[in-house]
Structures are given as C-alpha cells and as structure tokens.
Amino acid sequence: MIMKPRISNQKNQALTITEVLVSVVVVLVLAGIAYLIFHHAKSARENVRHNRSSEIQNALQNQPSENQNVSQNQSSENQNVPQSQSSEIQCVNNLKQIGLAFRIWEGDNRDKYPMQISARWGGAMEPAAQGNVAPIFRVMSNELSTPKVLVCPADADRSPANRFTTGFDNSHVSYFVGLDANDRFPQTLLSGDANMAVDDVPVKTGLLHLSAPDSVTWTSARHAKEQGNVGNIGLADGSVQTASSSFLQQMLRQSGATNRLAIP
Q: Which of 3, 100, 213, 237 is the most exposed place for a label (fewest CB within 10 A)?
C-alpha cells in the first residue's frame, strides 16, 4: 500500500500592509512611553540629588563655628588674620567640602561610602582595607571637583595635586578616612587631620586600629597652639569639630569600640 503525502489545505498568510503599519505604530507608541518613563525617572533622580546637595550645603554653611564668633566691633582688627589661624579655617572648610562629597556620593550609591563598596562596582573597599586613602577620594572626584581640598594648608609635608588622574596618591592627601563611618551614627569619624600619635609615637601610613583605651594625641606638625595641639575632625553627620587631644580621646570613646582609620 502506497502512502500518499498529506497536503494541508491551510495557506501561509502574510501580514497585510495595514497590519504591518499598525504593528509599527504600536511599537513606536510603546517606545515613546518607555522613553518618557525613563526620562521622568532620571529627572526625578537629578532633582533629588540637587535638593539633597543644596540641603546639605545649607546645613553646613549654617553650622556655628568658633571662627565666626567675632563681634562686628572687632572686624577691623581682624582683617589681617594670622597665618596659623587662616590655615586652620581653611582646613575646616576643606573637611566640610570632603564631608559634603561623601554624603552626595553615598546618596547616589545605595547610601554607602566608597570604602563600603567593592572596586568592581565603582567603590574603593579593597584599597581602603589596606589603608590606602587615595582611591577613596579618586572615586569621588566628581563630587570633590578639585584635589586641592585634600591638603591642609598647615601640612608642610604634602602638596596638592593638580588632578585626580596622573600622579595622584597618598602624598597629596592630608586627611585620614574612617572606614567605620556611618551616617546612621552621626558621631562616627569620617575624615580629619592625620597628624596623630598613639602613646606619643606618630602614626604611620596604612591602616590604623584605634580603640577607646588607646592614648591618642595630636602632634605639633599642624595646628599647634600655646595651650596645646589641636586638630580638625569631620564627622558622619557632616559637621567639623576642632578638637584638643583630650577631646579627641573623648570622641573616640563616643564613636565606637574600634575605629579603623586609613592614614595617608
């Protein structure tokens, strides 16, 4: 018995021109809707970032400062500010800018600082764990704008870099970075003068572990005063404190059991 091939009576129907045009129109409409949604979301993120930056900037500018508590009657006497006082004021301003950069960066990165995100995802966790501070500031180059704010004017051992790319390393940074800083705990140490000593021994470049019982003081390398050495500390809430050695010790006790500081 010979099997005859079955021939289907169904015909393959091609799309008509009308159907093609309708399909094209639907695709274009959907693409337009997707673009509008994406554009709106992007604009919303930019507005949130701008508003947050403005709020933080205004908050920092409105913070009281000991250096601003000068009466108007003494303004003429203070036109020529001593070099040491001028350097201290500039150092405080530097740390405020650094604190602002940290907070803007974390706002764009799941509320985490660069030292809490892996380098493969755009952070600096791995080099930070080795005590290397330069990569931390390098990933925040857009927020910092210039590397000049990373050098304290009173730091005679370092000079500011011209850019964040070629030649930028720890030799162009005056300030430590607190690896355990967290804005949920406002008094944790975020950044500050790195001229510290533990048991009267100046700290070295690298990762420094500090605990409350450690005897930590400022050296005379930067902000030396007749009544004792002081230093500037930036906290996780964006504020900057000018602290004596005893106040530094108190801040360490308040900030947590252990503080890991990356020293440039």
A: 3
